[in-house]
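ingest -> validate -> predict -> emit
validate: passed (alphabet ok, no gaps, 98 aa)
predict: started
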Amino acid sequence: AVVAILGQHDIYFGGVGRVVGTVKNTPATPVRRRVLLIEEATRAVIRERWSKAATGAYSFGRVAMNTTYTVVSYDHTQAFRAVVADRVIPELMTEQSP
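emit:
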């Protein structure tokens, strides 16, 4: 079974879950921002990506389901402070998941 998962997720924080969300500016305008996914038990940054400029959407796939995460969004333009969401619980990935 190890061969079947190679390249699909890492052995420490990988799994069948995903964390999705959107980043919006005020007043509720989607924006492109740097988003970090932090595993709460270890405080390790396990994923990092930029949200989509047109929609503000981000998705972290293939994460462990048995833990909670903190999502941090940074404004690289430095006009706004970081936005933090803690105790985020991943949802089960489906075949239609990105």
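The first strand starts at residue 14 and ends at 22.
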